[in-house]
Design a protein that fits this description.
Number of helices of chain A: 11
Structural class of chain A: alpha/beta
Number of strands of chain A: 10
Shape of chain A: globular
Strand content of chain A: 5-15%
Distance between the termini of chain A: 28 Å
Helix content of chain A: 40-55%
Largest sheet of chain A: 10 strands, mixed
Oligomer: homotetramer
Largest interface: A-B, 34 and 39 residues
Strand order of the largest sheet of chain A: 1-10-9-8-7-6-5-2-3-4
Chain lengths: 286, 286, 286, 286
């Protein structure tokens, strides 16, 4: 297993080209947030916007529209039960994030199937939370695209069939190969399984053990892969690393980290990374 | 009566174990906030989240869903008139907080009875505000669980039958023993009656005399007992102490303290406590 | 005309008694904010809460409930078309603020009449904005209570019959005497007409020329008169002075002052006033 | 093409007259924000309020009312499908901003036609986003007023018929002359075509390539032209310059700039400009 270092941030977060416009940085469509779990998709969307994606649309239950715009006027709203609209928004995206707060009832399943039917080969498709559980239970086929799963250990058990106590590197690797997808296995020292390599995240803090932390990571992966789409594989790794690097910094003065604080810290953190030259390490920047 | 000191904070707020996840820090279900008093349950929920509970769900009137998520995307929402859902959420919780802004009409009573019917022996059950009043008026039986009442003097009069002018330590102690519950009697120098001991809070400020202060305390007790469930009795005391210690600090530069400011200050305050060694007192930290 | 000085702040904003609770600082009921002007009553309510009133209830159009609690969980909500509830809340208040964003259609009039029918002799009743206009147009009788009008010049013309160009001290005084009420005439160098004296506000800044500034003042007068009810007449003057003193301070670094900034600055500003001894002037505190 | 300098800020942002009231600084009516794109009109309205317009009304889909007031209590709300109300608000405005998030369905078109039917010769009318697209597609006649278009290159292609690759100064100038309107052509180094002159904006940063940036600019142009209505032509240029000057400053420490940050920075930025004497340049102020 290869340990991730802050080098991944320097590789990915490079200065933006002078002559760029919002289209340069991609579109993210996030689908989730049922009547009960609206906060999850709002947190994921906040991460995608603050990461710097060009355009962000949030397809969610109508009850969440007000809170979404009260938190985040930068995101657009879509009713996630409007199948035609969700299909269009799925097809139009550079990165699709499906699952945060989606739930697992019949409506959730219908929405998920609709999304899966409209992704295409060139898109990044981040599958998170209840979308993973629904896939496993309903035995849905993996959709088209550059698929990135972000399960915690129980969700990974459901998807891969490997029980939590038996999730060794070898078994996980075999499961990843079968899926042909990237797997971000969220745990103490998160592991990322890709086609060529297994990475381990050596950083992180128990202050991150707060509901919504995973939704924020999923949104960051969506934002980074859209914005840095020409190096999407590295962008996944950079999002995972940045998520915990920011949390560690906040945790120096806080007992817990609220997920939205990571998102709101992204623009400043990413600027520091952009300026970092090869002789300086992230630790110097505090 | 034993005076509480900041030692209780050091005893309770210890470093989180490295290998922990959100489940480690418990689940809090808060039930309250009718059509008119939505702010109360939002403030209580904010306290529970900021205290560091692993997962927080807020069961409230549907009218409050938007404001809840606009303030606090980290909390999940449930319609408090959905009896089956509230029953499930009650049973699943480490700590249940019932009462802030619940109101005292027929619907409030139905909701309260539903909650009381589903608590279990191992849970912490914080009973606050109109839930205490309803219990007294409707002569409801005390539910199962580690019961913690957080009445102000008038609510305590209703529950215990002891008139405000006659609420002496002895009488209160006798009433507490009969109840077999912890009683946090909110007043100038709040008193906490437990099975083995009566404690007095020697700190606090009139800047706390603001609507919503008690809702915030109830939420903090919910958060602390869930997060530090293996020392739940001490966690109640620590929540009471921290609530006023933070308020005193804010009141050094403010004429009044807004309740949500206490909640938002919790992550930083708790970090300072975690770092405190035995030779240093909280006063050194300012 | 007597010029107000910062002495009025020292007279009114004194340390809170140690043994006080939220009931000590009064109740404010604010009525206003129709479908279109919800922001007005939210700004007024924010001022009342931040000024330190013990309990604040906002009676407004239901459409404003979410935004109210998203901004200000400390306030309680009531549907202003619920006549029985509004009557109760009016009677229960130490100070009633009616008018901010109330509008002037049939519903507004019905609500206003309902409020006017339920005020009592001992209450402070602040009549602002469209409530003044409706009174004048509909020739409503002045309600019971310690009445405080907060008109701008055009509203004063409607109420008193004195045209804007002819609003001299003598004429205004005569009109005030006929009304038997306090009149806060909002203008460049606001004038306050009371039973014994006419005061002029010598401070203020054109950075205050922003929509919502008057709603905030009405809310502050409501908050101050409830909190300092034993010196309610001085509390009106202190609210007017504090409103512009804070605005001047903010305007040192801002081209305009947003009304909610004044409210949010109140707790800190009032603390400074509380600490001020007689040899120090407010100017020293910056 | 004449390069804009910070001199335009000094020319426009001068100290407010002492004896002024909110009416002195004009009224802005903004129309846009359908069910899906509510954030756009909220961001535009925030810009208009923070720029210092005296009164701001936002006509939008009812679903956006809560989020508008949660973000911005200073703005008034109108249902944009209430034709009579929108007609009144259009006629009453100093500056009308139509288009941000308006959408392009039948309802959008009806609303746009209603607005266009009620503008008058003396008003500033800012036409943005989907309003430009609808005009082009539906071949709507240009409304009365001091018309200011704020298209990006694709919208300009639709309106002028000049393809993106062929949008030279000469062709754009000819199209502007035919329209008899000001054209703010948003691009890398934005160009402003007026009756007498073509200006180029030499500043700006790729950190501005974020959804909502244009909505914010449209709102700022609305705010500046209302507030500085006696020098409305220069106010357009000042708004364009200030928008990018603030963004550049924020981008010194952020990888991206969130649109609302520009609006919220306006009061402080404008104060600095007001104080600037002729020997000091904006760069000195950091």
């Amino acid at each position: 297993m290869k340990k991730l270092t802050d080098q991944i941030l320097k590789d990915v977060i490079t200065p933006r080209p002078e002559n760029s416009f919002k289209g340069t940085f991609g579109k993210v469509t996030l689908i989730g947030g049922n009547r009960n779990f609206g906060g999850a998709i709002i947190m994921a969307s906040t991460a995608a916007v603050c990461a710097g994606a060009g355009l962000v649309t949030t397809a969610t239950d109508e009850i969440n529209a007000s809170a979404l715009h009260a938190q985040l006027p930068e995101a657009m709203f879509a009713d996630f039960t409007d199948d035609a609209l969700v299909a269009d928004l799925t097809q139009a995206a550079t990165s699709v994030v499906v699952g945060p707060g989606l739930g697992n009832d019949k409506t959730s399943l219908r929405i998920l199937k609709n999304v899966f039917a409209h992704t295409t080969e060139k898109q990044n498709v981040i599958i998170d939370g209840s979308a993973i559980t629904l896939m496993a239970i309903e035995k849905l086929e993996q959709p088209q695209g550059n698929i990135i799963y972000t399960p915690h250990e129980m969700e990974w058990q459901r998807l891969s069939g490997i029980k939590i106590g038996e999730q060794t590197e070898d078994k996980n690797r075999a499961a990843q190969e079968k899926l042909g997808a990237t797997v971000v296995l969220k745990k103490h020292h998160t592991e990322i399984y890709t086609d060529d390599q297994v990475y381990q995240l050596p950083i992180g803090t128990p202050a991150q053990a707060v509901g919504g932390m995973g939704d924020t990571l999923a949104g960051m992966v969506g934002g980074f892969t859209a914005e840095f789409n020409d190096k999407a594989d590295k962008a996944v790794l950079a999002a995972v690393y940045a998520h915990s690097a920011i949390a560690e910094k906040i945790a120096e003065s806080q007992y817990i980290v609220l997920p939205h604080q990571i998102s709101r810290a992204l623009p400043t953190f990413m600027k520091k990374m952009e300026k970092l030259d090869d002789n300086h390490h992230i630790g110097f920047l505090n």
